[in-house]
Amino acid sequence: MRRPMISGNWKMYKNNQEAVRFVQDLVDKLGAVTGVDIVVCPSFTALSEVGEALEGSNIMLGAQDVFWTAEGAYTGEVSPHMLASAGVEYVIVGHSERRGRFGTWPADWPEELRSVFGDNDVTVNWKARAALEAGLTPIICCGETIDERRAGSTDAVVRDQINAAVEGITANDTHSLVFAYEPVWAIGTGEVCDADEANRVLGLIRALLRDRFGTVGDELRILYGGSVKPDNIEGLMQQSEIDGGLVGGASLETDKFVPLVEAAQRIRGEKT
Ligand code: 13P
User: Structural domain tally of the chain?
Assistant: First the structure.
């Protein structure tokens, strides 16, 4: 049985004071939850303070990105070892917002800024491997844009992204690998992917992982992300392949995030 996971990607929200207050509240409200991996991913600057506030709790710390070497002259970057030393256990890699696959784009930002963060299939693979080597668990993201979905290329896009991301990773390294399918058109739009369709795409990812890693592929967790909210979490969690959520907007408010974790616990609890 794969352990369900609800992971909050805070993106560029919450300063240190807000972040610490927020997780103190989460610890109060979720401290008794068992059987669900709960992760919060604040900005780099808040990691240490949030990590201290989470000490001894059942909530784990994640980061939103990582560089692929241990140290060096890379101004502005943060290495996997630095994250580990700050108490980080999980790291999101290849989020569509970093791959330049934004769903929405402010009209006054020029088109060339779209790829300003520069992630691509190669860097995502390097980041995932570096994270694993440092003992972190990468949460590897994939997902198609609305144009790719309309063109019928969802499966090919997801297949190519996943295959590239796990290049050079062997079954031995997979003890801690998490995947997230986040259709770009569902991120921050309120338009959740139909649960059956999300489950179908996750099934495709599962098949790829089985092909590559053998039976280990059955044990790896795959999350759905994109407008996950308290009113759609139940339908998602009831799907056979969906092991949890990678949550943006709803992870920023206690009264939205707590019900997501409780639903994951309740529904997976019923299934076992
Ligand atoms: P929303 O939940 O705000 O749609 O964001 C999803 C996401 O990008 C999580 O990584």
Answer: 1
- The CATH code of the domain that includes 240 is 3.20.20.70
Tell me if 244 CB under 6 Å of ligand 1: no
User: Which pLDDT tens digit goes with each residue over 185-224?
Assistant: 999 888 889 999 999 999 999 999 999 999 999 999 999 9
Assess if residue 97 is contained within a domain. Answer: no
What are the helix (H) ranges across 33-95? 47-54, 80-85
pLDDT of residue 79 exceeding 90, the answer is: yes
First to last CA, the chain: 8
Measure Cα distances from 28 to 4, 89, 109, 258, 266 in Å: 20, 21, 41, 11, 19
Residue 187 in contact with ligand 1 by CB distance below 6 A = yes
Q: Whose CA is nearest to atom 7 of ligand 1?
A: 248
Does the structure show a pLDDT above 60 at 272? no
Residue ranges making up the domain that contains 149: 5-81+107-271
Establish whether residue 192 lines the binding site of ligand 1, counting it when its CB lies within 6 angstroms of any ligand atom: no
Q: Does 92 reside within a domain?
A: no
Q: What is the pLDDT of residues 94-114, one digit of tens each?
A: 999 999 988 888 889 898 888
> Is residue 115 situated within a structural domain?
yes
The encoded tokens of residue 264 equal 């994951």
